[in-house]
Amino acid sequence: MADKVIGQSVERYDIRTKVQGQRRYPQDFNMDGQLYGAIVWSAHPHARVLRINTTAAEQLPGVVKVITYLDVPVNEYGINIMDQPVLVAVGDKVRWVGDRIAIVVAESERVARRACELVQVEYELLPVVADPQAAMAPHAPLVHEERQSNILLHVPVRLGDVAAGFAQSDVIVETTYTVDAVEHVYMQPEAALGYIDDEGRVMVIAAAQWAHDDIHQLAHMLDLPEDRVREIVPAIGGAFGGREDMFIQHLAALAAYCVRRPIKITWTRAESVQKSGKRHPMVMRYKTGATRDGKLMAMQAEIIADAGAYASTSTVVLSNAVSFAAGPYTIPNAHVDGYVVYTNNAITMAMRGFGATQVPVAYEGQMDRLAEALGMDPVEFRLRNLFEEGSLAITGNRMTHGVGIRETLRQAALAAGWREEDGHWRKPSLPPASAPYLRRGIGVACGYKNVGYSMGFDDTSTAEVTINVDEAGQVTRALIKIGASEVGQGVWTALAQIAAEALGVEVQHINLALVDTASVPSAGSSSASRHVYMSGNAVLRACRTALDTKRREWRPEVGAAKYTARYTFHGRESVATTPFDPVTGQCEPHISYSYGTQIALVEVDTETGETYIRQMWAANDVGKAINPQMIYGQSAGGVHMGVGYALTEHYIQREGRPLTRSLSEYHIPTVRDMPHEFTNIIVEVPDPTGPYGAKGLGEMPTLPTAPAIMNAVHDAVGVWFDRIPLTPEHVYMSLHKGE
After folding, report:
1. I want to staple 691 with a disulfide (CB 3.0 to 4.6 A). Which of 2, 401, 499, 536 is the partner?
2. Residue 214 sits in which domain range?
3. What is the pTM of this model?
């Protein structure tokens, strides 16, 4: 029997082959006789296509074919709503600059890109819809003319009597918060290789977060049975939600289908920055009330999110944002209206946190404003209102299954120097700043995030486990087949550890099959922080089923043998989620939750507006730590993204056109911008429905970072901020307003 592997920092499953350069990413694949594809992009954010002339491009030596809408069997796709054309047809509209007119296939990438410049497109320009708030007006130009409004979805939540709640409040604060679009900045640009495999299937090799869902869309687009389409997912150079939607798979598959030869398409970094989806910008109007003894009484909020040109996952992102609009706090009276609106801006989509990242900027800003108005310590104020087991959320559901938010705040606060004395919490005295023009401040923020898909979606993950038994009847090895994409989060390692623990073998004796839709079952998407919980449960149960079969069937005379078991885990085995009530929004929204608290110690340069993060404490409730070292990596990586969100990152668009055109114009934080000291605190409040008590973690560490920094900057300089990023210019102008 092997030593227990759950809770051990075992080596990552794929780390050696990656650091040694042996694992191949999509752009590393090539085939004999392959051609190259390049995209003819829309020249305008909103226009009707009147004519497409491909003659000059087709006559360029080396061009094999120019593919247009006429070559697409079914010219529509979309991850939730099929509202996107694969290639825009004559008579139809382009709705953002990422729409595609044609695919040029040529003998070289250079020729293909040159030929793109020769495709002539005649447009009728249309009014650009760039402001989501203006787009909501009754007579605004329509992005999708078949709809009566640009409002894609409205989600209301009504709990209690909000007017009475405000009447009972001694302090009320109102603020409008704004968060802007953000780029994913995964290291590997979009790349795909499409071809026809030996069995005549349309095949694509690409980075994807849910290959089996791509198959549904690809088969629909090509008008083929799903078993005639196949996708392989090799190593992935980051995702963060940006590879949930198809941005290149369908183009490579279509090209291979049309030309019947291998075709490789690789985007430039500029194309990746300008033509891929972003995190949703949101405007969030909040009004929150509390009594003088620090009890929250009422909250009213309006959340307006920019969907961009097409739906993508915007309806689900908005639903998530609305469900988390009050944060992890008990508020007996709530009135929330969430809207997501079509515009001609970049498509917005899944990005780490999925709607739960934006709203903490608002609800944690409100918590600090209320605490200051009441003369109360911000930690103490939060502790008077944070969820406990059995607390009622604004969506009417009771919080159960290991509510760890209070413990994350308690441990983070103690680590950062807070002390509890005489029943009250007291903020630490900060050491003086290192220069007279610097001001020090400390800020706290909490957050919580769903684990798994929500609002009635039947979330599932299927695992197939084959165990090898030796002549003595002992399990020696196991192979796991599961379609869980490893996007850098360490899911393969976690699943291997869960299997090793269940089977009683060393983790080195667990193998995982490559994600290939022809040979592994669907595990759902690498999103919603779900794989450790959902796929971990599927693997655990498949292992136990295989062991049960072995116990029933193995006898000494059988000798060495193999036993295979398959298990599909449904999230409803833990919690049966339900959709929003259309009037009140009351529901059972999510399967499970993770919780976190972060505290930031900053110095602000009053002469330049620059913010330096001196220390950061991050406490995450993971239920049960499967691999502590990977938890540290997720926590540090989440904080890194949160620092960018708070201080530097802003994808700028004007009238539907990107002004941020390359990474040189998009300021991601470097190692010099990271906290000088970082303390990761693992909190374990088990979820009894998770594998060995584990919850998901992937997204949680990004949620509190920006509001913790924003609150720390206020503590340092005494000025409230209601918009991120807190760039030096933004901070400086706020400090010196009126001078």
Report:
1. 536
2. 31-126+185-275
3. 0.97
- Residue 365 CA to residue 714 CA, distance in Å, equals 10
Q: CA 642 to CA 351: how far, in whole Å?
A: 12
Residues 96 and 243 in one domain: yes
Gap between the Cα atoms of 381 and 138, Å rounded = 42
Same domain flag for 511 and 543: yes
Whether a cis peptide bond, with omega within 30° of 0, leads into 669 is no
Report the candidate in 453, 455, 400 with the shortest Cα–Cα distance to residue 585: 455
Pair 503, 478: CB distance under 8 Å: yes
Judge whether 175 lies within some domain: no
List, for residues 141-196, the tens digit of each pLDDT value.
Answer: 999 999 999 999 999 999 999 999 999 999 999 999 999 999 999 999 999 999 99
Side chain identity at 480, as an amino acid letter?
I
Report, as an integer, the average pLDDT of 414-419: 98
Phi, psi of 683 (to 5 degrees): -110, 135
CA angle 343/348/353 to nearest 5° reads 140
Average pLDDT over residues 353-374: 98
Digit-coded pLDDT (tens) for 649-695 = 999 999 999 999 999 999 999 999 999 999 999 999 999 999 999 99
Q: Following DSSP, what letter does each residue of 29-92 receive, concatenated?
A: ---TT-EEEEEEE-SSSSEEEEEEE-HHHHTSTTEEEEE-GGG-SS--B-SSS--B-SSPPTTS
Alpha-carbon span 239 to 244, nearest angstrom: 8
DSSP E strands in 572-724: the ranges are 592-605, 611-621, 653-654, 657-658, 677-683, 723-724
